[in-house]
């Protein structure tokens, strides 16, 4: 009974910490999207980290509640109800696929998973290059913290070459990890992409059906969130598991 009580307390503590981390990551950096009245953020980094490390339930709660609180704090009230459901589903799917998929990892040779990870790296590199150069090149407005959308923290010019180089760097990083990492790394990339694409679809449907805005404008924005989220989260998860091997989702 004492052990069961400890496990429940531990799970609640972890969930609370990652809910706060999702909220902080989302609020800490954002780019306003006038055409949809939404914003780009890096909250996916913590949604994916929570889901990959601690499974679907923690991923769902931290992703849904943490992201919804961010919408409320930043003043994007019209997105809060949808964010709760969409980000919760995203976190659940990432955690579920990464946890259940380990049985498939054991049934395939490391060479097959290495090849799969290499292909995933190429896909991520292409996504970063295409989405970044198409949606984030030129003058962009950056925001940090809970501030008004009319008062950007900075307006910067980002050349297209920056995103092309970043895409190549992302692909090379994943290719390098494919040869030194365990087979699960490729599975985690696919889990993040699957959950991320469902997030993209969820926001597109919400904006198209309920908000009446130009929903296609935010599709590349959300794909960018997904891509940066998995680029940051998967190495973090790898380091944490190596440092704290007792952590299992």
Give an account of the 3D structure:
It is built from nine helices and four strands. The chain has 249 residues and is mainly alpha-helical. It has helices spanning 2-28, 44-54, 56-74, 80-100, 102-106, 110-135, 160-180, 184-211, 219-243, and strands spanning 30-33, 38-41, 138-142, 154-158. The protein is globular, with a radius of gyration of 18 Å. The chain has a single domain (2-243), classed as Arp2/3 complex 21 kDa subunit ARPC3 (Orthogonal Bundle). A two-stranded antiparallel sheet has the order 1-2. Strands 3-4 form a two-stranded antiparallel ribbon. A hairpin with a 4-residue loop joins β1 and β2 (38-41).
Highlighted features:
249 residues, mainly alpha, Arp2/3 complex 21 kDa subunit ARPC3, two-stranded antiparallel ribbon, 9 helices, 73% helix
Tell me the number of structural domains. 1
* CATH C-level: Mainly Alpha
Strand portion: 5-15%
Distance, first to last CA: 22 Å
Order of helices and strands: HEEHHHHHEEHHH
Mean pLDDT equals 83
Alpha plus pi helix count: 9
Report the radius of gyration as a whole number of Å. Answer: 18 Å
Shape: globular
Identify the strand order in the major beta sheet.
1-2
Question: What is the CATH topology classification name?
Answer: Arp2/3 complex 21 kDa subunit ARPC3
* Largest sheet descriptor: 2 strands, antiparallel
Helix content: over 70%
Instruction: Give me the secondary-structure category.
Output: mainly alpha
The number of E-state strands comes to 4
């Amino acid at each position: 009974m004492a052990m069961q009580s400890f496990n429940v307390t531990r799970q609640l503590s972890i969930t609370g910490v990652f809910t706060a981390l999702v909220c902080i990551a989302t609020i800490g950096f954002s780019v306003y999207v006038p055409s949809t009245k939404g914003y780009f953020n890096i909250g996916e980094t913590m949604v994916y980290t929570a889901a990959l490390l601690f499974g679907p339930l923690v991923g769902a709660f931290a992703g849904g509640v943490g992201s919804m609180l961010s919408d409320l704090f930043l003043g994007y009230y019209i997105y809060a109800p949808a964010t709760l459901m969409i980000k919760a589903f995203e976190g659940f799917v990432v955690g579920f696929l990464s946890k259940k998929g380990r049985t498939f990892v054991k049934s395939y040779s490391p060479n097959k998973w290495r090849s799969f990870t290499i292909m995933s790296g190429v896909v991520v590199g292409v996504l970063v290059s295409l989405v970044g150069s198409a949606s984030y090149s030129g003058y962009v407005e950056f925001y940090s913290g809970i501030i008004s959308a009319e008062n950007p923290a900075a307006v910067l010019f980002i050349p297209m070459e920056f995103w092309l180089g970043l895409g190549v760097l992302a692909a090379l990083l994943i290719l390098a990890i494919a040869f030194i990492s365990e087979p699960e790394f490729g599975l985690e990339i696919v889990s993040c992409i699957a959950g991320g694409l469902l997030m993209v679809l969820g926001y597109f449907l919400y904006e198209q059906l309920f908000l009446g805005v130009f929903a296609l404008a935010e599709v590349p924005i959300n794909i960018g969130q997904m891509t940066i989220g998995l680029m940051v989260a998967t190495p973090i998860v790898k380091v944490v598991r190596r440092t704290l091997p007792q952590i299992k989702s």
